[in-house]
Design a protein that fits this description.
The protein is α/β, with parallel strands linked by helices and 558 residues long. The protein has 19 helices and 26 strands. Helix 7 (131-151) packs across helix 8 and helix 9 crosses helix 10 (243-250).
């Protein structure tokens, strides 16, 4: 039996006009700014009118530590939102926008999969409503104004050796990681080392996703530190008078995008910050708007729960004043077997012992989520090769942690495939056991915040810092940034900083390599290893197989 590709499934979908989809949650047609007939932005005027509405319940979808076997977090988020609607609840999914870089690189698209997708899939994975292009333009405007200021006399006394701000491009291009700009003579400026990050790693992206309105956006943009003077004083975007023009470029991008699932349920897809160098969640504005419109909002955070959920709790929830009522941890039998020591090529063979060993990773994530005062539920994203004995082992592991695991078939069955999970999530929320609290208080010193995460979440013995990092901690606190949350930049594949240590390692040391201040976004990035902020393309990129067929339809996008 041939299995249809994601794009084939998406293309067969019977989409409804976005005005009909929006009407399901009470959004009138006049509140929409349409981009074609299947996608639209929700206007600020309408969002402002919603503020007296009560909030719905927030459900976070996270996962075990990711493996090459896959977990299906976005697919499960869409499937659960459809499942909640399937059982008669008013629910909205809130997701991140995909980046063009991974889409044409190794990962492919990011709009869910099978019969749990958001559509129009091609639009969402490509240019969509132009948000990422606007972010790229706003970011690079600031970079251009910075170099222009230096060219015309450098009145602020910027030390060119201490320029912190790279340009961005929403494409994987390793050739741009490290460059020299302004070559070619006096008329082109003063040559200096420079480089590009991918757009999703831009602080402007993180700012857009944390801003509550246009005024807040402009303030945060103005706070971006782009460079330092010769006496080490910070130079901000507002010093270059860049904040106003950047806000103009982003005024439409800040409005959240509404699309639909394959089952014609509403979904917000808005923003997409890097899950390592930033906090990896969709926009605060989309999430809070969804909470005013629906009884249940299902959202996700990047990577496994040790990174994505921790940042969602300690950064997004803290800054937005929101609190989740339940957390769904996605696992696959395949991924658990990899955590139990099975090679990728051997995953089709039943191995109950490896599943049991791999469940140590799942148990760790359940424990960690509970530390934030939120009940955890396990969603097992089913694959055809899973056996009953392997599935039973996952169920047993969940029950040993005081929770339940549910087999989910949303990839093949859509919302019907998460019916049991949806009923249980509603039941858990109704019990009112959630008592959300961040892991650490704002007033805790920065270094202790890092140590708390390392010990409590990663189960490390301690952190290690050399003299330069110790100085950075002290300097940031002396400059008034000590109350900011920390954003850990660590490999997503392990609780440790070694991506090859799967399962649930303990007793390791987390080395802190450097600190990076995101003054506009409002967090301190703590780098624990080599962080790639401009990925490269693989030897055989996805772009090789993406094309238009004779009918003008896109092929190869998945």
């Amino acid at each position: 039996m041939s299995v249809k590709s994601d794009i084939e499934v998406a293309r067969e979908a019977k989409l409804k006009p976005i005005s009909e989809v929006a009407a399901k949650v009470g959004v009138p047609a006049e509140a929409l700014i349409p981009y074609g007939w299947t996608k639209a932005k929700v206007s600020f005027d309408y969002i402002n009118k919603l503020q007296d509405n009560p909030d719905g319940k927030l459900i976070l979808v996270t996962a075990i530590s990711p493996t090459p076997a896959g977990e299906g977090k976005t697919t499960t988020t869409v499937g659960l939102a459809d499942g909640l609607n399937h059982i008669g609840k008013k629910a909205i999914a809130a997701l991140r926008e995909p980046s063009l870089g991974p889409c044409f690189g190794m990962k492919g698209g990011a709009a869910g999969g099978g019969y749990a997708q958001v559509v129009p899939m091609e639009d969402i994975n490509l240019h969509f409503t132009g948000d990422f292009h606007a972010i790229t333009s706003a970011h690079n405007l600031l970079a251009a104004l910075l170099d222009n200021h230096i060219y015309w006399g450098n009145a602020l006394g910027i030390d060119q050796r201490r320029v912190q701000y790279k340009r961005v491009l929403d494409m994987n291009d390793r050739a741009l990681r490290s460059i020299v700009n302004s070559l070619g003579g006096v008329s082109n400026g003063f040559p200096r080392e420079d480089g590009f990050d991918i757009t999703v790693a831009s602080e402007v992206m993180a700012i857009l996703c944390l801003s509550k309105d246009l005024k807040d956006l402009e303030t945060r943009l103005g706070n971006i530190i782009v460079a330092y003077t010769r006496d080490k004083k910070p130079v901000r975007a507002r010093d270059l008078k860049a904040d106003g023009a950047m806000t103009v470029l982003l005024k439409d991008a800040l409005q959240p995008n509404m699309v639909q699932t394959l089952e014609n349920n509403p979904a917000f897809i808005h923003g997409g910050p890097f899950a390592n160098i930033a906090h990896g969640c969709n926009s605060v504005l989309a999430t809070k708007t969804a909470l005013k419109l629906a009884d249940y909002v299902v959202t996700e955070a990047g990577f496994g729960a040790d990174l994505g959920a921790e940042k969602f709790f300690d950064i997004k929830c803290r800054k937005a004043g929101i609190a989740p009522s339940a957390v769904v941890i996605v696992a696959t039998v395949r991924a658990l077997k990899m955590h139990g020591g099975v090679a990728k090529d051997d995953l089709k063979t039943e191995n109950v012992a490896a599943v049991a060993k791999g469940c140590d990773n799942l148990k760790r994530h359940i424990e960690n989520v509970n530390k934030f005062g939120v009940p955890a539920i396990v969603a097992v994203n089913k694959f055809i090769t899973d056996t009953e004995a392997e599935i039973a082992e996952v169920m047993k592991a969940a029950e040993s942690m005081g929770t339940k695991a549910f087999m989910c078939t949303h990839w093949s069955d859509g919302g019907k495939g998460t019916e049991q999970l949806a009923h249980h999530v509603v039941r858990v929320i109704a019990e009112g056991k959630a008592d959300f609290k961040p892991l650490y208080p704002e007033e805790m010193p920065l270094k202790e915040k890092v140590r708390t995460i390392a010990k409590e979440i990663y189960r490390a013995a301690d952190i290690s810092c050399d003299g330069s990092v110790e100085t950075q901690f002290k300097d940031l606190e002396a400059a008034g940034f000590g109350n900011l949350p920390v954003c850990m930049a660590k490999t997503q594949y392990s609780f440790s900083t070694d991506p090859n240590k799967r399962g649930a390692p303990t007793g390791h040391i987390v080395p802190i390599r450097e600190l990076r201040l995101s003054a506009g976004a409002g967090f301190v990035v703590v780098v624990t290893g080599e962080i790639m902020t401009m990925p490269g393309l693989p030897k055989v990129p996805s772009a090789d197989s993406i094309r238009l067929d004779d009918k003008g339809l896109i092929q190869g996008l998945f």
